[in-house]
């Protein structure tokens, strides 16, 4: 075993020899992967000491950046030195109790019960299991342009290109279209589109038989597929159809929960809309430690007081992760992190509009809070990639290289470029980042 201090060469060698990458084939993914050594604030530093702004908070998860707040670090350290691990399935602990209490405080009063898996995928597994067991019904309706996680249940629920890997899947999932369709329009204007869309959804519910549908599960703002923002009428319409046909509404807040779009939870941006079950992860613990959460409306929580939910994993409600999340939420409230997001939303929108006017490689931009995306287009004005199995155009690779050269680490998965910096970014830092992206886009223009 190599006991000397590892330099970048050792790290790359072991990665090459032994590390398996996941969504794509290992070799191309490894070659495209970037090394990082440390982080500070919104910045990452590589092994050469070069500095990068993290412009997508990794996978839109490290909402508080790379400098762990001292209060969070202190609580984690204390937990590690007093009770570093306890199986959450059979024990009562202060971290779990405190986290449930603070979530109760920051969510609508109808949502009263919480449990804590590890990942967003697991949280969605729980939501699906709970909806089926509570209603005694099996079907779950989800949308085509969605991502709900990489484990088999949520991957079957997923509609985006990754669902190919879960095709042998789990039974009982039915897909419906999104308001944002590529090949056709639902109507001549927004109002007509929404009303046709909701009529289509009702027709789907009736065709599937409402008595067989446990839940409709949607991302509050569709994230991975490109920040597709649901107009309020769509979310209100889905809520109304759920109420009419006695179907649960599950909102997947894994990406937008914990402040990303300008409220603590994304559904709070839709006046008065409360889901029956919601899931969150990523920002819940600032991603300093793995943790996700599921919130239940009171009658669902009460049902499981006397009926088994029938779910578990060893690391649920891990005490170190739970105390971390509790302190993260406390920090967010004390520092008004959500206020910072609200304050910077107009800067995001202005700068995105400016880039749209300036660069013909961009077609459309969408943003809410600190969550935005551009569609990238080729010389023909069409999306630069039609399908994720298309080869990535050379220009896009040059653009990615230029972004890195300009000190921007961003998640560019064509045809979409996400913009989602840590929520603690300052206005000056945000403007600096946009200036660097602006320059890099010249490489992509025609
Ligand atoms: N749901 C949504 C909306 C997501 O964006 C993600 C991850 O990106 C997940 C679920 C899955 O979460 P995880 O990767 O933590 O399992």
From TrEMBL:
Pfam family of the protein (one): Aminotran_3
- Which InterPro entries does this entry report, sorted A to Z? Aminotrans_3 (IPR005814), Aminotrans_3_PPA_site (IPR049704), PyrdxlP-dep_Trfase (IPR015424), PyrdxlP-dep_Trfase_major (IPR015421), PyrdxlP-dep_Trfase_small (IPR015422)
Query: Which Gene Ontology molecular function entries are recorded, alphabetically?
Result: pyridoxal phosphate binding; transaminase activity
Q: Does the keyword Transferase apply?
A: yes
Going by the UniProt record, its keywords in alphabetical order are: Aminotransferase, Pyridoxal phosphate, Transferase
One GO cellular-component annotation of the UniProt record comes to: cytosol
Q: Which family does it belong to?
A: Belongs to the class-III pyridoxal-phosphate-dependent aminotransferase family.
Q: Which PANTHER family match?
A: AMINOTRANSFERASE (PTHR43094), AMINOTRANSFERASE CLASS-III (PTHR43094:SF1)
What name does the UniProt record give this protein?
Answer: Aminotransferase class-iii
Per the UniProt record, the source organism is Stylonychia lemnae (Ciliate)
């Amino acid at each position: 075993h190599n006991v000397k201090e590892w330099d970048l060469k050792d790290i790359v060698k072991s990665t090459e020899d032994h590390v398996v990458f996941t969504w794509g084939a290992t070799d191309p993914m490894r070659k495209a992967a970037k090394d990082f050594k440390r982080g500070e604030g919104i910045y990452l530093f590589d092994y050469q000491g070069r500095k990068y702004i993290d412009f997508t908070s990794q996978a839109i998860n490290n909402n508080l950046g790379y400098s762990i707040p001292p209060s969070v670090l202190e609580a984690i350290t204390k937990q590690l030195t007093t009770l570093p691990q306890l199986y959450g399935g059979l024990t009562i602990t202060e971290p779990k109790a405190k986290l449930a209490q603070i979530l109760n405080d920051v969510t609508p009063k109808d949502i009263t019960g919480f449990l804590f898996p590890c990942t967003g995928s697991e949280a969605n597994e729980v939501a699906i299991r709970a909806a089926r067991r509570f209603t005694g019904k099996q079907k779950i309706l989800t949308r085509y342009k969605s991502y709900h996680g990489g484990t088999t249940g949520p991957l079957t629920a997923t509609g985006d290109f990754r669902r190919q890997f879960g095709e042998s899947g789990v039974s009982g999932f039915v897909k419906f279209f999104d308001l944002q369709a590529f090949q056709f329009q639902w109507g001549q204007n927004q109002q007509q589109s929404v009303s046709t869309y909701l009529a289509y959804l009702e027709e789907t519910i009736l065709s599937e038989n409402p008595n067989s549908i446990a839940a409709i599960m949607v991302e509050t703002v569709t994230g991975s597929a490109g920040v597709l923002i649901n107009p309020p009428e769509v979310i209100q319409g889905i809520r109304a159809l759920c109420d009419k046909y006695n179907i649960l509404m599950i909102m997947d807040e894994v990406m937008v929960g914990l402040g990303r779009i300008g409220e603590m939870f994304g559904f709070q941006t839709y006046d008065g809309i409360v889901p029956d079950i919601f899931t969150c992860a990523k920002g819940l613990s600032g991603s300093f430690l793995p943790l996700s959460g599921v919130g239940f409306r009171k009658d669902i929580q009460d049902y499981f007081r006397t009926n088994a939910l029938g779910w578990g994993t060893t690391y649920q409600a891990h005490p170190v992760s739970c105390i971390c999340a509790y302190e993260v939420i406390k920090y967010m409230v004390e520092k008004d992190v959500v206020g910072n997001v609200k304050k910077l939303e107009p800067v995001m929108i202005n700068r995105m509009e400016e880039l749209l006017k300036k660069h013909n490689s961009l077609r459309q931009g969408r943003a809410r809070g600190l969550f935005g995306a551009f569609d990238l287009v080729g010389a023909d004005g069409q999306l630069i990639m039609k399908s994720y199995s298309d080869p990535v155009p050379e220009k896009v690779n040059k653009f990615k290289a230029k972004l890195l050269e300009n000190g921007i680490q961003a998640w560019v998965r064509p045809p979409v470029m996400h913009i989602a910096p840590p929520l603690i970014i300052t206005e000056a830092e945000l403007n600096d980042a946009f200036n660097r992206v602006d320059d890099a886009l010249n490489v992509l223009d025609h």
